[in-house]
Design brief:
With 206 residues, the protein is of the alpha/beta class. Helix content is 20%, strand content 21%. The strands form two sheets. A six-stranded parallel beta sheet has the order 5-2-1-6-7-8. Strands 3-4 form a two-stranded antiparallel ribbon. α3 packs parallel to α4. The chain is globular and about 50 Å long. The model has no long low-confidence stretch (mean pLDDT 95). InterPro entries: Isochorismatase-like_dom, Isochorismatase-like_sf, Isochorismatase_Nicotinamidase. It holds the Pfam family Isochorismatase. This is nicotinamidase.
Length: 206
Amino acid sequence: MNAALVSLEHDVLLVVDVQNDFCSSGALAVPQGEAVVPLVNQLAQRFAHVVLTQDWHPPRHMSFASSHPGRQPFDSVEMPYGTQTLWPDHCIQDSWGAAFHPDLQIPHAELILRKGYRRQIDSYSVFYENDRSTPTGLGGYLRERSFRRLFLAGLATDYCVLYSALDARREGFEVVVVQEACRAIDLDGSLASALAAMHAAGVEFA
């Protein structure tokens, strides 16, 4: 990615869920998740505008396997909004796991957006809850500030980065996923499916 391609006025870097629970020793560790941290720090220096996001679940969130007796992490259940993968308890509000990785250093970030705080519904995308209709408000924030192109980095490529990229395209933004600064869970081939879906939606890769 050429530095000259990054506009100071209309581009924003969106750093998705670089939190302790998604890194080594975390409750829902993404393989090599912490490897993105120095890359994201370097990338952020190229942008005047940065938004950080956090998974921010209350205890007993309905996406947790522990909230469904007899179920195990990575089982699936049907929820009112569709099929939900069940996860280990993770990113519980105000916990160590929900905190940003301690080496993430982006002091000029202008917004921290928290998602997944409604107990009855999960939120992969930073734009919408998993019902695909309840907005987080990020789309309006970005439009009000006249941003046109979003660069995405963070965790995980095949879940929160994927859904955020697709929704950003649906909201009319240009989207570039900085693939080197992302890592995937890759559950049952989910990474390949995610990359194909993003390509089909017009997402670019750097």
